[in-house]
Amino acid sequence: MDLLAAPPQYVEGLDGVRIATTVAGEGPALLLLHGYPEMRGMWRRVAPALAERFTIVATDLRGYGESDAPAGELYSKREMAADQLAVMAALGFENFFVAGHDRGARVAHRMALDAPERVCAVAVIDIVPTLHMFDNVDRAMATSYFHWFFLTVPGGLPADLIRADPQRWLRSRFDGRCTTRDPLDPETFARYLECFRREGVIEATCADYRAAATIDLEHDRADARAGRMLAMPLLALWGSDSYVGRSFDVVDVWRAYARDVAGRAIGADHYVPEEAPDETAQALVDFFTGVPGGKA
């Protein structure tokens, strides 16, 4: 299983958007969703252990990696989650587990809210909910997560500036956000950069962040007003040295959004699956095998 180099299987998501997909292993289905500015290859060190217990479905989110990157404001987490629901249905998985890191965790959260009958359990890595983040902005958050605000500027300015030196921008997303080691060998970084430079990807990823600050918040606030919470088991993992780990009581925050929450820190900064793959894989195996239907 080579999540970095193997040609993907393309599966149709919402409205014909093609989602790059790699499937491996056997057992209960586990969907793996990556973060910014990465692609499904970020799970390369975790997936082999998971594939011993589960059927792994690793995908590139719309607008990322090798998936289609349609132009326009088509990047609400609801739309991105609908892609993944369509992929899993097309592969024959009506019910499944999902684990997401960073942006992928936000898509997983929305998917579990919108399709609780299909998502049996969810693991989110190094995030607290988007609504909570925006409702608790301070100087530390704005400094650590400045790209949350920069990428939302309309009119194409962020994309134009990033395209002037995409390698420097991509490198900046990892420098200073890894504590145990640099998780990116040159081959991995080159692969991420190759995907990031694809036509439409930089613009699409900016649209993803614009959606997070606009339509996604509308959806989240509507859920909050209606009292909608996740009922399926949720595991929150976070880097002990990450901004999230340093700034929030992560489990306590998630208990305002989900009824059945467990969680713990892992010795890492933000890129937990790449910095601490063995510990991440074990935490996910322990969690999902403990959920009904989690054992083959």
Give the tags.
single chain; 296 residues; Rossmann fold; 42% helix; 16% strand; 8 strands; 8-stranded mixed β-sheet; alpha/beta; 15 helices; globular
Number of strands: 8
- Helix share bin: 40-55%
Structural class of the helices, strands and pairings? alpha/beta
By CATH, the superfamily comes out as Alpha/Beta hydrolase fold, catalytic domain
* Mean pLDDT across residues: 95
Which strand-content bin applies to the residues? 15-25%
Structural domains: how many = 1
Strand order of the largest sheet: 1-2-4-3-5-6-7-8
- What is the annotated CATH architecture? 3-Layer(aba) Sandwich
Describe it for me?
With 296 residues, this protein is of the alpha/beta class. The protein has a single domain, classed as Alpha/Beta hydrolase fold, catalytic domain (Rossmann fold). It contains 15 helices and eight strands. The protein has an eight-stranded mixed sheet, sandwiched between helices. Strand 3, helix 1 (47-51) and strand 4 (55-59) form a beta-alpha-beta unit. Helix 2 (77-90) packs across helix 3 and helix 8 (166-172) crosses helix 9 (186-196). The longest helix is centred in the N-terminal third of the chain and has 14 residues, at 77-90. The protein is globular. The two termini are 20 Å apart. 49% of the residues are buried.
